[in-house]
Protein 1
Amino acid sequence: MHRILLLCLPFLVAADWPQHLGTNRDGHSSETGLLRSWPKDGPPLLWKRDAGTGWAGPAIAGDRLILFHRVDDKEVLECLHPATGKAIWKSSYATRYRDDFNFDDGPRSVPLIAGKQAFTLGADGDLRAWNLETGAAIWDRHVNKEYGVEKGFFGTATSPILAGGKLLINVGAKGAGIVAFDPATGKELWKASDDGVSYSSPVVGKLGDEELAIFFTRAGLLAVSPEKGEVKHRFPWRPRINASVNAATPIVSGGRVFISTSYSTGAVVLEVKGGKLEEVWSGDKSISSQYSTPVLIKDHLFGIDGRADQGQAVLRCVEWASGKVKWTEKAFGCAGLIAANGLLIACAENGDVVLIDPSTESYKELARARMLDLPVRALPALSGGKLFVRDGKKLVALGVGKQ
């Protein structure tokens, strides 16, 4: 399912977390030997470092951890050793981005590590490539300015993806909804669609008999061929109100694709029949994800349903085949989710880190500890028996594997 993506990341080991939602961008890790219980105060704190503002989660490949954050008026890229938190190099550039709602001035896009390069996309649309070994700048594009993209509610937050040897981004301009760049030079290779930019990040997966780059844009699902940018499928799916976002990442499995938003719209599962996308199930009664992306464990979705900004978010287990709700844990709050070693790890917006048995019969909490301070919106990462989580002031490494 993810053959194209993995071919673009040749130097990774199985337990790396090199991009948005992990190696396959599905929230799954191949980590083993994870603890099934924690001390009362939570998993051991292995190290911590000060961090600036931003909701960008870390990316890890080998002995490199990339922290993307903002310090004063600069967006900063720091390379740390994941075992110790010690700095290897640091690079930065000036930014003028300001959040209109005074939430956070970004950045919000998870870095992408591929081979000997790292790629970042800042809150103001600064797309940059860096030398992973030294931190030297390779190239940069100011995509919002170059393509005439409006600021939007919360700045740029989609994370880049490599597919078919090309760096793809939901830029969101007329005639340039999706743009492919040469990862070596930053040169535009192709552009497609008029779809506006969303806060969702794309994936690579198989629909019908084709391996495609799949986006959840402002307008809905858009599937394109990585080679030439041919639009193969589209499916309108967005809230009726303008004051809304599409933010959850699509999930592809068994030839079907899942997308979900909130605002009385909900989720839809689609599959290709007769060359066209058709609904398997849809609606607002199963799982309506405002920000957080669910994880698919075997044949069930585990994810956040409801609006986090209105205090309505719950954790829910839903059948993949039908959308039937199996159980709901009320007042759970929004959370970033990771599935690994038969466990579900949730990093909740209230600062709790929660260990869960992903049972389909009922909610089964194994451990919980307050490890972070508000606000918590950055996605967690798991690598080398360590859970990396951050809030608005610090990044911490927690020992969740057997030492």
Note: Helices lie at 3-7, 143-147.
Protein 2
Amino acid sequence: MNAETLTTVFEAGRGNRAVELLAQTTFAMRADARFVEREDDLAAAVFLAEEDPAALDADALARVFGRIEAADALDQRAQALAGARDGLTAEVAALPSPVREAALQAMAEHHRWTFAGLGIQRLSLFTDQGEQAELLRIEPGHGVADHDHEDEELTLVLTGAYHDGHASYLPGDVSVARPGFVHTPKAEPGEVCYVLLAYRGALKFKGVFGLAQRAFGFPTPLGGKRA
């Protein structure tokens, strides 16, 4: 997907918490070499191109330092949680800050990780005007049955990687799946694959296994065309 299309996707989602969380996390990942380092960084160029020059307020420097201190405090809390006995909490604490804070908040509000298929767990973050935001944890080698999409679904790869029968998706990749795009996402060998989803509408599963997933209320899986 080119930069113009990526701009359109994020622009269309302005005002929607789920899409904005995904966009913020994409920016945070691509601005921090700890999470992703790439030469074809279209997302960073998109965010930069969308900024308008503006004069600085008198208290601008103080506000910047305040935001830095607040971010440092959140990072220190995350570092403390990284040693938690709960393996999922420790893994979440190591994710990029925007999705990390959303996930920790959801967990504090007693949102529970739920079974979403063999080797897959999900954490619902929130719902906003019918748009869902959720975190998926996929064990290597596991995935979701063939499916189509009733509406648009955005997916950001946070850790690990997956292949959907069309292409591979790595950390920092944003994917878009729309009606008519049928695929079979499966986590690649190696690191556990975490993905952040922003989606609307139901899935159209294919085959017997897909029908079984739908019957038991399994969640929306991974996305489509890479951005």
Note: The CA atoms of residues 161 and 170 lie 5 Å apart.
Protein 3
Amino acid sequence: MKIINIAWKDFLMRFSDRSEILFFLILPVVFTFLLSGGASQGSDSPTPLLLVNEDESQLASEFASGLIENRTLDPQVVSLSEGERAYKDNRAPVLLVIPSGFEVGLLSGEQVSLELKKTPNNSRADAAEQAVRAVLSDFDRSLEVARNSVAEAEMLSAITSEDDKQEIFNSSLLAAQNAFNLEPNKVEASWPEKIRTTSYDPVAQASVGQMITWVFIPLLGISGLFAIERNNKTLERLLTTPTSKPTFLLGTITGQSVLALIQIGILIGFGAFILSVDWGRSPSGVLVMAISFCLAAVAFGTMLGTFVKTEKQASNLSIMLGMVMALLGGCWYPLELFPSTLQTLVKVLPTTWAMQGFTGLVMRGQDLVEVLSSVLVLLGFAVIFFVIGVKRFRYE
């Protein structure tokens, strides 16, 4: 009952300031959404392209067919007025106009200009423009082959009329297009299934990393609870009760760990249902990792509370340490991007082992047994921090 009462007291103190909900829920969700590219979720789907074909010739239709076959584009054939109105209303980020005289200009060897409008500062519009250029480049290669074929036929005096010229051009164009279609559009790599599961997933990285960051910082912030109680002289009242230091600290750790687990559950749910991160590969592994991480973090915050003297000092120090340790632990950027020496040094941080364990579960398809080393290290951190906190705990 003492542990439960202490935990409830800490809960009331922590959320006495409504701004605490900012760190508990709002900032974690916002940062996870932004860093996962949430604002551009669905960017893998084809980009809408308003296509106006004012020429309606054979070559214009073939070029439009190339756009339709491109996987990154979703052309919507419209009239010029409809296209301009839809583009102005932001119903599509790109408007492409094939002008009248498109075929005549290409057949005569003249330079033909396409009109392309795109939404500024829009990555999908930029990607769509590159896709249009790629289709145009492939189309131009076939035209160049057809022109060269006509030129060779004229040199050999094989052309006696415009019909002959048009027939050679059309047949050469078709043959070139078929030949180019046989070429691979892209290089595709394949790996054994076990190796494929280790591929980097920026959305999963953001979901795991931001969860660790925003759970870790508030748990370090419980050091401020000790500072408040010392300054208010409420800790001295414990001297008149048969409450031992381990019991008091255990109550603090228990209560804050439960809150942290609730926060983790919310962020995992957000990642799974909103960002489509596969958190369900090993539920037992996720649960054990979450508990061990919470114990290590809250024990660290408890130990930190024995060093700070004021609430402001505790707040500043917990935010600074939390951000730095999260960054160095690979929560904001993959640890593989760091120098090898630094990758070794940061193994002294609990955030490194938390990130290693959670990413193993989410991105590498590991189970509880495979992340057991991370669990044991985190529990070791928890014991060390708790022992130091008990040794240094003072009422005044």
Note: The longest strand covers residues 47-53.
Protein 4
Amino acid sequence: MSELFQEIARIILIGDASEKCQATHALAANLVSFSLNHQTEAMEILEPGYPASLKLVAPRELKRRGIQSQEGRNTLMHAIAHIEFNAINLALDAAYRFRNQPIKYYQDWIQIADDEARHFGLIRDYLNRHDCDYGDYKAHNGLWEMAVDTQHDVVARMALVPRVLEARGLDVTPGIIEKFERVNDHAAVDILNVIYNDEIGHVLLGSQWFFYQCRQRNLEPRATFTSMVEEYLHGQLRGPFNIAARLQAGFDEIEMAALNSRFG
């Protein structure tokens, strides 16, 4: 019987996109066949595996193009593919990084990784249909930097990855969908709607595990979330917020009122 943490680490370090997705799907489908050894120590992963063709640069070096042309649409979809590829790694790392959690914790994050691999596959198929592939454009590595910053604390990880990074997707995706609707790119719209609806559930699971971790340490969730934003993001949380989606995803009305008042 293979050991779960060892297998997750192996998948995180896979660079080939197809191989990483296939391994993630196989892990989710055969999770019961893996053993758990909580005595092992998680190794530091400063960078996950990426395709050799992908060039990572600072965000300011990324070019923005309008989506009137197919090249512009490819550029935007490539950026979203990069987010989803990172989301695979982030979900797997949430399962790998933190020991002695309830079994459902590991089940949930591996299922999320499986969903993210499916999302990535949908976008990559779109790119391939338009003579493009993941790695053809530059991308930035800011998402994984948050994984490194929070690798020592499961409360910080649950606060800042699902409830900040992924929740930001809930805020911006409806506007991106509208842009693709205006240029009649129905294939892109369909893909983004699938991702948007699934991500509400992902953020909800992240919120639930954040609340769980706060209860374990007798922490007040709203104050803890605010302190994490202050500590790790220096109080910089970007609005406007998709209140309806965030309420479905585990935020409450008091929390949203506070976020709107300060960052909206």
Note: The chain is about 65% helix and 0% strand.
